[in-house]
Amino acid sequence: MNNILVLGAGKSTTVLIDYLAKKCKEHNWKLSLADLSLETVQRRTKHHEDVVAKKLDVNNVQLRKELIKGSDVVVSMLPPAMHYHIAEDCLELGKHFFSASYTDKRLKEKAEEIQNKGLFFLNECGLDPGLDHMSAMKIIQREQEAGNHISLFKSFCGGLLSPKHAGENPWNYKFTWNPRNVVVAGKGVSTFIRNGYYKFIPYHMLFKRTESVDFPKLGSFEAYPNRDSLSYRSIYGLDSIPTILRGTLRNKGFCRAWNILVMLGLTDDSFELDLPEGFSCQMLTNAFLPYDPQMTPQQKIKQLIPDLDKENLEKLAWLGMFSTEKLPKRTGTPAEILLAILEQKWKMNPEDRDMVLMQHQFTVVGGGKSRSIYSDLTVMGDDQEYTAMAKTVGYPLGAAVYLFMKGQFKTRGILLPILKEIYAPILEEVAKFGIEFQERTLDA
Amino acid sequence: MNNILVLGAGKSTTVLIDYLAKKCKEHNWKLSLADLSLETVQRRTKHHEDVVAKKLDVNNVQLRKELIKGSDVVVSMLPPAMHYHIAEDCLELGKHFFSASYTDKRLKEKAEEIQNKGLFFLNECGLDPGLDHMSAMKIIQREQEAGNHISLFKSFCGGLLSPKHAGENPWNYKFTWNPRNVVVAGKGVSTFIRNGYYKFIPYHMLFKRTESVDFPKLGSFEAYPNRDSLSYRSIYGLDSIPTILRGTLRNKGFCRAWNILVMLGLTDDSFELDLPEGFSCQMLTNAFLPYDPQMTPQQKIKQLIPDLDKENLEKLAWLGMFSTEKLPKRTGTPAEILLAILEQKWKMNPEDRDMVLMQHQFTVVGGGKSRSIYSDLTVMGDDQEYTAMAKTVGYPLGAAVYLFMKGQFKTRGILLPILKEIYAPILEEVAKFGIEFQERTLDA
Fold it and tell me: Which residues contact B19 (CB under 8 A, 6 or more apart)?
């Protein structure tokens, strides 16, 4: 077994490719990288002459299968919708499969077949999902094995600007990752449980229901609940835990201002606008506010949200939401049009650096006392290519592939990195590259 | 041509069947009625011995096509999702097609084929859509033919309790029509235009943005904007009209109280709950409110919506939202669970009567002056079978079929009742049964 195929050479793959190329050179394995754009592949592989560069349209099923047939291990870095098809090919052709994305429901139905064929299918092995699973399970299993009881688990993660570059705009925010995901984040209802009370938060309330999360040296951030925290009870073996919450981190003040855009309806992604020529940003904002030709949009927003701080309106003004300039995009959903506005404002400059933060909080009861355990991860981007995002996705996934190739994992089937056999060596490997959690314990 | 087939014998078909049975008897046409339940068919046809009763599972494509093959005209009273498949069969087998539902987008793509085959496909010929098109177009075309200019068009419709029976509960409301549609009404974004200003209202704001609509003798009602009013500009030939709005009517005070359920998230239909045994209505309400074991859900709602009237909380209490009784349903979306609660409370009693209201408002400019035209429809239900809903859906659709059978319509293709050739004789026919609009004109 010595052929690795990576499908997709997008921005987030820089670290993964460099890491795997180095490991392949050391072990005399063959690494192939395929993408729709040969130019992108060549840019990623320019320092690695041994990596085989391929041009591939993944929608061409025949060519795709031929490439997969010639490999032993396939890593999908394609857009999430493609993973299932690649995984299906791998199952058909008897190849091992790795991804950093959520496990497709349809794939779970094929668990037995994957197991029976002796294949190793590992999903959710990037940052979030990925490092969150691994670092949480390390503490959960350690405490449970010591006979202790976990009564609270909260987990927060966020992709942000590094503190050195965050103060430049009033939002302290720029797109360091998929911008579209940021604009539609939180749609639906977020669920969690607190002291035994189920909590369900609809989207239009989500960004008001934040909590504060402190990082040593970095200070306070705010977090909004992130989708379905309840399902993590069974995944993590915490079925009867009275408090579990997962949240997304933002710089202080972000959520209150973002909430205005949500309340107005500007993040709606369910209906298509077709606005007349010359429609301005201000006209768009005004269209989501009640009719009153005597009032400015700013005045109407104040009426709508009486406890609004002045600085929140300034944040909207800074985005250009009250500007009489033409919209950068006139057709599409409100979320798509808002995205076009935000992309002009929240674009990373070459000198900007990103940062990834993660924090787990546990309350652990054992030996007649209660302790709080905090586990923090802080990763800074080096430059525009070696971003914190690329590192925290690339190293865990790369390490998983590397360790698998070395024969470290004996389990087979469709897996998450929640097994000690898998997460322990991966966490050890990524620590060599600065992906290391800091643990603090406070007696309650 | 003398065979009419009606598919679906649900509650709303009583008037349609009676009307068509009578016309078929007079003209010696054959009427067949098919439904999944033969018992339902027999109940509908008990006074009409000439009507052929059939049992049909519409998902059985072969049997369905055989039935359609033996008819000349097919009327679909099935759930909306089925219309397209029936219409496709009709196109394939060369049969004419009638429905009271919105035209399926996929069907529009087959317009040329329908036209070329000389078929008559009429959709949106019930109440809303249906009578709204016909009665609005009658005035629009009359005024435009007279050289007048329409600068405002608002149209409101609602299915309510008759005033004699409305005062019995604090909501003045019961389900007189599809309960599920009431619970999820307004999802997405509602759009309209007012004095040239585009207005987009997201769902969580919709029930706050009501306007008052007066009916002579009946008094004031409230209306919330109903989905995409903008698309009616081209349908009705009002492309550059500065004000167009369609709205749904409710009794005064309904929307403010309903809005609390919307704000809490209880009408969400996007995620599945699986609540523990013994979960009460109060626990459900509380789950959508912030965590605070010292406060009751009522206190939390007051904090969330500071300008809340006491009577709105009483409306929620009357529904049982603060009751410690077990939920009638523990799994499903919040909307589905809320529906189960509401169905216990908003169920029509045998002595209750329903009412359908419609009002069009126009501002018409011509001859140097401006006039306001109001066109009102008020229809009361006779009993549980001859409801106002069954009348206002059944008579227009029945009249369309009858007039078509008599050879009154020359046009062919996929049609709406917005052509004078179609709406004028239908409105004349339904007026014989009390479906008659009252027009008032006020000089501005």
Answer: B394, B395, B398, B399, B402, B433
Q: Is B280:B323 a contact under the CB 8 Å cutoff?
A: yes
Query: What are the CA-CA distances from residue B148 to residues A65, A163, A308, B110 (Å)?
Result: 67, 64, 47, 36
Which of A205, A206, A209, A304 is the best residue to mutate to test the B interface, defined by the most B CB atoms within 10 Å of its own CB? A205
Architecture per CATH, domain A258-345, reads as: Orthogonal Bundle (1.10)
As annotated, the residues of chain B forming the CATH 3.40.50.720 domain(s) are 3-129+388-435
Predicted complex: ipTM over 0.95: no
Could you tell me the CA-to-CA distances from A420 to A142, A235, A427, B79 in Å, in that order?
A: 10, 14, 10, 52
Chain B residue set in contact with A, beta carbons under 8 Å: 187-189, 191, 194-195, 197-202, 204-205, 209, 228, 263-265, 268, 270-271, 273, 275, 283, 286-288, 290-291, 293, 334
Contacts of A194 in chain B (CB under 8 A): 291
Where, residue-wise, is CATH 3.30.360.10 in chain A?
Answer: 131-253+351-385
- Which among A205, A268, A291 has CB closest to B194? A291
* CATH 1.10.1870 domain position(s) in chain A: 258-345
Q: What are the chain B neighbours of A264 within 8 Å (beta carbons)?
A: 202
Which of B194, B205, B263 minimises the CB distance to A265? B205
Q: Which residues from A are below 8 Å from B330, CB to CB?
A: none
B-chain residues near A275 (CB < 8 A): 198
Determine the angle formed by the axes of helices B297-304 and B310-319, rounding to 10 degrees. Answer: 140
Distance (Å, rounded) from C-alpha A100 to C-alpha A394? 9
pLDDT tens across the length of chain A (444 residues): 899 999 999 988 999 999 999 999 999 999 999 999 999 999 999 999 999 999 999 999 999 999 999 999 999 999 989 999 999 999 999 999 999 999 999 999 999 999 999 999 999 999 999 999 999 999 999 999 999 999 999 999 999 999 988 777 899 999 998 899 999 999 989 999 999 999 999 999 999 999 999 999 999 999 999 999 999 999 999 999 999 999 999 999 999 999 999 999 999 999 999 999 999 999 999 999 999 999 999 999 999 888 888 899 999 999 999 999 999 999 999 999 999 999 999 999 999 999 999 999 999 999 899 999 999 999 999 999 999 999 999 999 999 999 999 999 999 999 999 999 999 999 999 999 999 999 999 987
Query: Which pair of structure tokens corresponds to residue B167?
Result: 């005062």
8 Å CB contact of A288 and B200: yes
CATH code for the structural domain at A131-253+351-385: 3.30.360.10
Domain B3-129+388-435: CATH class, spelled out: alpha beta
